Amino acid sequence: MMFDSHVAALLDASVALVNVLTDGTKGGKPYAAPRGDDLPGAVTAALPSTAGGRIGPEEAAYLSGTAQRMRTVFEAVDDGRIDDAARTVNELLRSTGARPQLDLVAGEPWQVHFRGASDSLDVGWSAGCATALALAIGSDLVGRLGICQASRCDRVFVDSSRNAVRQFCSTACQSRVKAAAFRARQAERR
């Protein structure tokens, strides 16, 4: 069993928001999240094109706060602290007023989507992402939430591979680790 398409899209959005809006390391280098005037554009780029509309500064700031909290969920899962992850997700669910709703999408059957207490874009996306994380943590798919295992990279990912063996946020980090291992083996042979 894997995530349905709507939950997978929300998890992808969660990953994008966390990776774009939180400081840390990326690909072996320090990463500073966008701030100030750069924040709305970064949030707009992180969300799928279906998000609709341009993100304003207040909405961007709200989603940045959501991303900070979601990062703690990924970190807790990575550390095996599932109870902490669940508590944080429950706080997100409560603060956004997350609720399911059936929506009819043109040319498709009814679909369960997740909304927030208000129909604003920032609260809606936060509620949807929180619900998707809740569905992952509340299932046997919790191990699919991960943090890159490459040195000097702390970007997050959702493992959608068939055999659940993904360890890296990107092929660039995977290649960097493999190249470093190859160089280390070559140095040992000398």
What attributes characterize this protein structure?
190 residues; alpha+beta; Jann2411-like fold; two-stranded antiparallel sheet; two-stranded antiparallel ribbon; 6 strands; globular
Layout of helices and strands:
Layout: H1 5-21, E1 24-26, E2 29-31, H2 39-46, H3 57-78, H4 82-96, E3 99-104, E4 110-115, H5 121-137, E5 145-147, E6 156-158, H6 171-189
Antiparallel strand pairs: 1-2, 3-4, 5-6
Helix pairs in contact: 1-2, 1-3, 1-5, 2-3, 3-4, 3-5, 4-5
Structure overview:
- The protein contains six helices and six strands; from the N terminus they run H-E-E-H-H-H-E-E-H-E-E-H.
- The protein starts with a helix and ends with a helix.
- The strands form three sheets. A two-stranded antiparallel ribbon has the order 1-2. Strands 3-4 form a two-stranded antiparallel sheet. Strands 5-6 form a two-stranded antiparallel sheet.
- The protein is an alpha+beta fold.
- Strand 5 and strand 6 (156-158) form a beta hairpin.
- It is globular, with a radius of gyration of 18 Å.
- The mean pLDDT is 92.
- Helix 1 (5-21) runs antiparallel to helix 2 and helix 1 crosses helix 5 (121-137).
- 52% of the residues lie in helices and 13% in strands.
